[in-house]
Amino acid sequence: MEKVKWGIIGCGDVAELKSGPAFQKTLNSELLAVMRRDGKKAKDFAKRHKVPIATDKADDLLKNKEINAIYIATPPSTHLDYALAALEAGKNVYLEKPMAITSEEAQKICKAVEKSNCKLTVAHYRRKLPAFMKVKALLKQGAIGKVLFADIQILQPSKSDIIADTDENWRLNPEVSGGGYFYDLAPHQIDLMYHYFGAFNAISGFSTSSNNSLVEDTVNGIITFQSSVQFRGIWNFTSSDENKKEECMIYGTAGSIRFSFYGDTVYLKTETGNEEFNFENPKHIQQPMIAAVVDFFLGNTENPCPAEDGFLVMQALEKLSGRRF
Question: What are the start and end residues of each CATH 3.30.360.10 domain in the chain?
């Protein structure tokens, strides 16, 4: 394989700016086809982004011999079926997060990858954004000494600018999303904690729902890592605008690191003073990750986020929410 030739299943809101154009702008990458159940919208996407093929049938992409990789950007309820079908068709897969609606489904995907000659990467794209890479570098160089614990607070009103706005708010339908806004946002945050601190040791949590909601709007949990790092997190999606907050703090024996999951600045506080590191995120936020995925598919580098990592994050979501074990 000299070039990764993509088909997108689900060319909706996420693919519009965050990811779709990046497949065309990445070296050794080409976007050949897009699919959406609404054929007119698929054709509109294809016309605006200069994609040769548009269709309302996923099979058209899976049976296309020129396409060697599939980006699955549909809601989580269809991730399992599309991932299995793509692997069966001999396509490499870039799979949106959360990788499924349950850890059982995620495990099925992992087993399918093991049996396949194809590759799969989960779209935890923050791993490749400069601000979060800087945090990892600071931790690795011991900038705050021995890491002791981390604290995440995500307090958001029900209408929040960090939650994607869609025609149908499928994120609040657990049969489609798996578990509301928590399942939509927390995978990125929990994945970064796993990426920074290593394997989980134990996870526990609780959740509540208000106004007869089918999904959690408050989740409160703790994690211990095998590295001895401790973690606590609170997610609430009924907060007032006055209480709105979105922050991660990492504390060590010699200082602390503070950052936002939706920002581009990292703050370092040590005994010798304070430092601020500013970064500029790419226009298409997933482009650095997509570039890493392309290199992986071409055999030039390791997997930037293996299926097993996505599975462990799914397990963590379930344990933190206290709904499944």
Answer: 130-281
Q: Vertex 168, ends 159 and 221: CA angle to 5°?
A: 50
Q: Beta-carbon neighbour count of residue 26 at 10 Å?
A: 23
Q: Write the CB contacts of 266 (distance below 8 Å, at least 6 apart in sequence).
A: 131, 134, 135, 138, 257, 258, 259, 276, 277, 279
> 91: part of which helix (H) or strand (E)?
none
Q: How confident is the model at residue 226 (pLDDT cuts 50, 70, 90)?
A: very high
DSSP-based three-state secondary structure for 277: strand
Residue matched to tokens 């990892």: 136
Q: Is 266 exposed, middle or buried (0-12, 13-18, 19+ CB in 10 A)?
A: buried
Q: Which of 94, 79, 89, 176 is nearest to 128 (CA)?
A: 94
Helices (H) and strands (E) in the chain, counts: 11, 14
Strand partners, 232: 151, 222
Q: Which two tokens stand for residue 96?
A: 């949106």
Q: Are 238 and 210 in contact (CB under 8 A)?
A: yes
- The string of pLDDT tens digits covering residues 300-313 is 999 999 999 999 99
The CA distances from residue 38 to 10, 16, 70, in Å, are 10, 15, 19
Residues 95-143: tens digit of each pLDDT: 999 999 999 999 999 999 999 999 999 999 999 999 999 999 999 999 9
Contact 73, 15 (CB under 8 A): yes
CATH 3.30.360.10 correct for 130-281: yes
Q: Assign domain 4-125+285-303 to its CATH superfamily.
A: NAD(P)-binding Rossmann-like Domain (3.40.50.720)
Cβ burial, residue 294 (10 Å; 0-12/13-18/19+): buried
- 265 contacts 276 by C-beta, under 8 angstroms: yes
Identity (one letter) of the amino acid at 244? K
206 residue type, one letter: F
Q: Distance (Å, rounded) from C-alpha 100 to C-alpha 83? A: 10
Stretch (H or E) spanning 35: strand 29-35
Burial of 69 (0-12, 13-18, 19+ CB in 10 A): buried
